[in-house]
Amino acid sequence: MTPIRRITTALCLPLGAALFLNGCSTLAPKYSQPAAPVPAAWQTPAAAPADAAGPPQKEVATIPWQEFFVDAKLNKLIEQALKNNRDLKVAALNIERFRALYQIKSADQLPKFEAAAGANFQRIPETLSGTGKARDAQQYNVSAGLISYELDLFGRVQSLKDQALEQFFATEQAQKSVQLTLVSQVASSWLAYAADRERLQLAKDTLANQQEAYRLIKSRFDAGVSNSLVLNQARTTLDAARVDIARYTAQVAQDENALSFLVGSPVPANLLPQTLSESLTSLKNITPGLPSGVLLNRPDILQAESQLKGYNANIGAARAAFFPRITLVSSVGFGSDELSGLFKSGSAAWSFAPRISIPIFDGGTNKANLKVAEVDRDIAIAQYEKAIQNAFREVADALAQSGTINEQLAAQQSLTDATSESHKLSRARFDKGVDSYLTVLDSQRSLYGAQQGLISTRQASLASLVTLYKTLGGGK
Fold first, then answer.
1. Phi, psi (5° rounding) for residue 358?
2. How far apart are CA 445 and CA 382, in angstroms?
3. pLDDT tens digits, residue range 417-436?
C-alpha cells in the first residue's frame, strides 16, 4: 500500500466511525404548546348593533397594509418609514446576528479539519547529544487531521443548535412585530397631525369671528349702547381663541416632529394631511375571526413561542451534561529530518486520540444548570401565556371601541348641530336686545367645545381602525 493510500485510510477510519456513532436525538422534553388561557370567543359590546356596519368583510390579518390603508399620502409615509426607521434597522440586524449564531451552532455538528506544515530546528549540546559532540537537528512535517470533534451521542450539540434556531425564529418575529407597530404608529401620528391641523383651523376661524364680534361690541360701547361688562366678556372669548391658536400651533409642530422621527427623515410638506381623511381605509366592518386563529398569527405571540421552544431545547443540553462526552482528535501526514525526504517511503505518520470524559463530582453544577434550564422554560411558559392574554385584551378593547364609535360619532354630530343652532338663536336674541351677551358667550363656548369634540371623535373613529389592524396581527 502506498503512503498516500495509508494516509487516506488512516484519515477516513476515525471520520467514518464518528459519523456512524454521532446521534441525532436529544434529551429535550417533547414540546407541547400550552393551551391559550383566554375565552373561546370575543365579547361584543352590548351597545353595538350586530348589523351596524353592514356585511362582514375579510379578516384584517389577511390584508397587507398597502391594501388596508388606501390614502396615497399615508402609504408613501409608511414606505419611507419602513426604509429609514432606526428601530426597524436594528431589528433587521438582529436577524442577521442570530442567523450567524445559528450557523455557528450548526457547524459544531460537523467535523472540522485542519492542515498544518511546520519545521523545527535546534542545536543539541555535546553534554546531551549522547555522542560527546554537539550536533544540529531539524525536523519537517506536513499533516491534516480532525480537531476536537465531539460525538453527539446524547444530543447536547443538537440541543444547542435547536435553541439557536428558535432564537433566530424569535428575532424574525420580533422584526415583524416592530414593522407592524411602526406602520400603526405612523398611521396614528398621521391622524393626530391631521386632527390638530383641524383644531388649529377651527381656533383661527373662531378668532376671526370673535374679532368681528368684538369690533361690533366695541363700536356699540363707544356709542354708549353697550356696557364694559359685555365688552370684557367679548374680549375673554377673543383671548381664549388666541391661547388655543398658540397651543395648537405648538401641537402641530410636535406632531410633525413625531412623524419625522418615525419616518426617519424630514416629512415632505406635500405628504402632510390638511384635514382628517374619511378614506383612510376601505375597511368599514371588521371580521376579527376566532381568538385562536388571530393570536396564532400575531408576531409577538409567535416570538414568545419560539423563545419557549428555545428554553425547552436548553433542557436537553443540560440533561446531556450528566452523560459522558467523547471527543476525537486525529491527524495524518509525513515527517522527516530532511526536507527532501519528507514524502519518501517510510515518512508517513498518523495519530488517533479519542477522549472520553465522565462527570463524577462537580459540586452540583450539572444539577443546578438543569434546574436553571427547567425554571427558564417555566418562566417562558408564563410569559407566553401572558402574551396571549395581553393580545386578547388588546383585541377585545379595540373591538369594544370600534363597536360603539359610530354611535358616538352620530351623537357628537347631533350635539354639534344642536349647539350651532342654539348659538345662532342666542346671537339673534342678543342683537334684538332680548338676551345678554353672556348667553351668546355660553353658546359660543358650547359650540366651540362641540366642534372640538367632533374632531376628536372622528379621529378616534379612524384611530380605532388602525388599532384593530395592529391588534389583529396586521397583514403580511
1. -120, 120
2. 52
3. 999 999 899 888 877 878 77
Cell of 184: 400603526
pTM confidence score = 0.81
Q: Can you tell me the mean pLDDT for 374-400?
A: 92
pLDDT at 190 (0 to 100): 94
Residues 18 and 42 in one domain: no
Residue 366, Cβ neighbours under 10 Å: how many? 16
| Cell numbers given for 93 | 440586524
* Within a domain: 201: yes
**89 and 186 housed in the same domain:** yes
C-alpha to C-alpha distance for 395 and 387, rounded to whole angstroms:
12
Asked whether the beta carbons of 26 and 155 are under 8 A apart, the reply is: yes
Rounded alpha-carbon distances, angstroms, from residue 392 to 18, 380, 448, 460: 50, 18, 38, 21
Q: Find how far residue 274's CA is from the centre of its chain.
A: 30
DSSP string, 167-194: HHHHHHHHHHHHHHHHHHHHHHHHHHHH
Q: Which residues contact 220 (CB under 8 A, 6 or more apart)?
A: 226
